[in-house]
Design brief:
With 204 residues, this protein is α+β, with helices and mostly antiparallel strands. It has two domains: 93 residues, RRM (RNA recognition motif) domain (Alpha-Beta Plaits, 2-Layer Sandwich), CATH 3.30.70.330; 85 residues, Alpha-Beta Plaits. The chain is 29% helix and 26% strand. It is built from six helices and twelve strands. Strands 2-3-1-6 form a four-stranded antiparallel β-sheet, with helices on one face. Strands 8-9-7-12 form a four-stranded antiparallel β-sheet, covered by helices on one side. It has a two-stranded antiparallel ribbon with strand order 4-5. The longest helix is centred in the N-terminal third of the chain and has 12 residues. The protein starts with 9 loop residues before the first strand and ends with a strand.
Length: 204
């Protein structure tokens, strides 16, 4: 049984929507799983045998464990995800723990995104609002991607994209406190490795 597999850094995710393109799937998985910790790799293949499945490789076991508990059964592209620990160690982990010698430069780049990101959050005085204003979004951002990120927070109502602008969006909550909770958790969150999302309260 899958329960007997010991916890490790790699999660095996299945029951994924097979209609989603591979690159979009990987970006969406990165967006929802990277809140739990640094991700070394995401593997998704579109071969017949591997369709609807993916592997998410975390830097440490505690991140993988938290992700497994939080995201088990999460409705992802309208299908509940099924998540277990992977049976075998992934290449990314083997590289990290010495089977391969990781290049110094790569290791440094991995560290950087996780350090000191959230400071920018409260630098300017802002009046709380139940609507959040998102900026610096990547071009491939979709309403679904953002709703999967924000609907884990209580009071989430809707995402509104701005026609003709891919880099900004609005997210509405039922109360200012609920909006503030989501903002504190996700401000500075990296939707992709190169795009750090900025979240402010929308001006009243």
């Amino acid at each position: 049984m899958s329960i007997d597999i010991p916890p490790n850094q790699t999660l095996y995710v299945n029951n994924l929507n097979e209609k989603v393109k591979k690159e979009e799937l990987k970006k969406s998985l990165y967006a929802i799983f990277s809140q739990f910790g640094a991700i070394l790799d995401i593997i998704a293949m579109k071969t017949l045998k591997m369709r609807g499945q993916a592997f998410v490789v975390f830097e440490d076991i505690s991140s993988a464990t938290n992700a497994l508990r939080a995201m088990q059964g999460f409705p992802f592209y309208e299908k509940p995800m099924r998540i277990t620990y992977c049976k075998s160690k992934s290449d990314a982990v083997a590289k990290k723990d010495g089977s391969y010698v990781p290049r110094e430069k790569k290791v440094r780049e991995k560290r950087k995104p996780d350090e000191g990101m959230p400071h920018a959050a409260g630098s300017q005085e802002e009046l709380p609002n139940k609507i959040l204003f998102l900026t610096n979004l990547p071009e491939e951002t979709t309403e679904l991607m953002l709703s999967m990120l924000f609907n884990q927070f209580p009071g989430y109502k809707e995402v509104r994209l701005v026609p003709g602008r891919h880099d900004i969006a609005f997210v509405e909550f039922e109360s200012e406190i609920q909006a503030a909770t989501a903002r504190n958790s996700l401000n500075g969150f990296k939707i992709t490795p190169t795009h750090q999302m900025n979240i402010a309260f929308a001006k009243k």
